[in-house]
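Discussion board: Methods & Data

I've been asked by a reviewer to show the raw model output for two of the constructs in my manuscript, not just the figures. I'm not sure how much to include, so I'm pasting the format here to get opinions. Each protein appears as its amino acid sequence followed by a line of discrete structure tokens. Is this the kind of thing reviewers expect to see in a supplement, or should I convert it first? Here is construct A:
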Amino acid sequence: MTQQLGRLGVAGLYLVVQFANAADLSPVLPSPLTLEHALSLADEPHPTLMLYTADIAAAQADYQRVDANYDWDAYLEARARYIEPAKTSPDQTHDDHRIGIVISKEIYDFGRHNAQRQVAEHEVDARRFNYLDARTRRRQDIMRRFFDVLLADLLTGRNEEELATTYVRFDRLRQRKELGQISDLVVLEAEAKVQRARLLRNQSQAQQRETRARLAEALNRPADLPALLTAPKLDMLQRPIPEVETLQQLAITSNYQLQALRMRVIAAEQRVTAARAQDNAVLKGNAEAFSYSREIGSNDEVRAGVTLTVPIYMGRRDDALIAQAQAQLQRARAELHIAELDVRQTVLNVWFELDNLNQQRQEMAALRKFRELNLDRSRALYELEVNADLGDAMVLIADVEYLSAQTNYKLMHAWLKLDSLTGQVALPGSDTTNKPAESIKQNEKQ
């Protein structure tokens, strides 16, 4: 077990070193970029994950330190000494040198080492769960940035449509003004609308650049801004919403943050046990082999034995250590309880959000049908030269496309948030559930 943790610790430190140059070694993003591919990059080296991987490596190193207390100790001891021997000594030489090897090992401490080892082991598990929690939050961030780019593109298309419509209207009014049919006031009002539409278009174009830069940063490729994105399939939006009680129970059981806190509670309990075992007896074994320059009766060439040390009085140090460990345990239990309450409330909030977004999605579907019929009507009237509001109808269609996409993307993000809360991270457009726990194990084996 110790050797395995040693390899894991080295692997963790290796990953930390590799993270520093990860951006330079990352392959170029494909074009067009899909959401599935973007989410698949969540396991790639990233500064956020680097912090948690370093925490795991530190906890593994602490485990090794605790486990090493039971290792053999061996050292070479040499002594050079000049003496004045007693007159009764059979050896009257003045050189009293010796050289040899000493080996010792702590054999048993009646529970203290095991408790300390349990503390370190559960701290490692807690930090692994923290890594998985950070990974799910990174997936949420990637999805949100991906959707922001798609929405910025839709908004730019909508604003360009409005700019074209307002400019055509302004141009027609300017021609009528030259013919003396309308006043300057009407033309100036139309020109102001053109300038307003141009401003909105320019702002949305800037937003296109900004959202792409944020997505590139989320993917740890700040210099590789994705040009084209593929809108994801919306299959997962058809999922039925389970009962909130079922979701809350699943979250309490499987949420990574809660599992990390439970590991810390167990570690705190073991820390109390270790503190109470501080005054336990300790059994040590030792062996010595020496070579001497003087031959006297007390100079044994080989010695071996065991030593039992039983503390009699430790003052108030043990009481202080136990009190401190108990306070840490109380704090860990309180943090776990607070987190459980927060997770329950968050699941309830997301559950309501899903229900509201589903209703909003139905509203958008009805609005889309209405505006499509209105566009057909406007197109027919335009062809008959009865009305000239075709451009307005197209802007309304662009509006509903933007609002529908916004609703759908919010709904997909809410589903991923719920999956993250319950420890079930599903890829959009797939019925399979990704197993994040396998990811960190694969990284540790590298």
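Construct B, same format:
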Amino acid sequence: MIREPSKPRADWRQRCEEVGFGFHSIDGIYWDETARYRFAAAQIDTLERASAECYRVCMEAATHIIEQNRFAELAIPEEAWSLIRESWEKDAPSLFGRFDFAYTGVGEPKMLEFNADTPTGIVEASVAQWHWLEDMQAELGGNADQFNSIHEKLISQWKWMREGNFIPQSMHFTCVGDHEEDEGNLHYLRDTAMQAGIEPLYVPVEQIGWDEGNDFVDQHGARIDTLFKLYPWEWMWGDEFGKNLRRSTMRVVEPVWKMVLSNKGILPILWELFPDHPNLLPASFEQHKIGGDYVKKPLLSREGGNVELFRGGEVFRANGDYGEEGFVYQQYSPIPNFDGHHATIGAWIVGDEPAGIGVREDATPITMNTSQFVPHFFT
């Protein structure tokens, strides 16, 4: 795993925008092709195996949590428990998720967390960096490849859900309105659904209404039968939306059982069920059970919010609005540091299969919303 300098394409902005990646320069430069990451084929094989294995153990842990009724340890609202069990028992399908790995290129990748409910970074990890690879082939020697079948697998998963009657021919897609990054991710997912033969209707989440005689409705008053949401389940339960969910017939993607996988409370339970697993890190609900350097994580933190890293007498803290529900403690695992560029691997799962990776960098060991995306390739 090597970070090397790279000459940006002259038309890189246009090329990004052609695939709907308009937020490439959000907060300065988010998409950064002045560098690139080179992997060996064996390292890509390792990341693919680790992705599949981590998904397997996470699903086993979810089964355990649901069957043993351990929702309270994850601070999941009690009113959601029955709906979680119901969606799990019905095998409500999942579209995607993203593992965050610490991986230096040597040894086994270590799972930091699983972004299983509302993962972002999908458009840049899929079509944006694939276009970069195609445009850079001559410079890369003409035989470069990329761990990236995200786009094709998204379309295939939508088709599978449609053909299995899990979703209808027409469905709604939602996220927070006027949020450039969320809308960029959502509209890309709408495009993949459209390529799978689905009519993807858009409704900003704040414009979803409730009709006492007609369930949830969109901004035009039309009933919402099935909703894909790029909006966290825990936020939905915290407002009027959640109250109406209990009497709604609306189907939701991602399904409500994803509340179990997306909660960092699964990390201690994973370590309890699979101690000494090569892809897991020791984790606990109690700090004193973690020896040496460690990371304190809120159960429901996003983009590094309120994460604290205790390493060799140093403390790194990220600001945020999380932590009210509680914390977990995970043994610290170093991520690669290339002259101040701390790199985290985002490994995508589509359906239940590994689909590719993206590399994000931050100036600190905590990957936050200030991170930058750097494309990768392997030979």
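Answer (T.O., handling editor elsewhere):
This is acceptable in a supplement if you add a one-line summary per construct. For B, something like: The CA atoms of residues 97 and 116 lie 4 Å apart.
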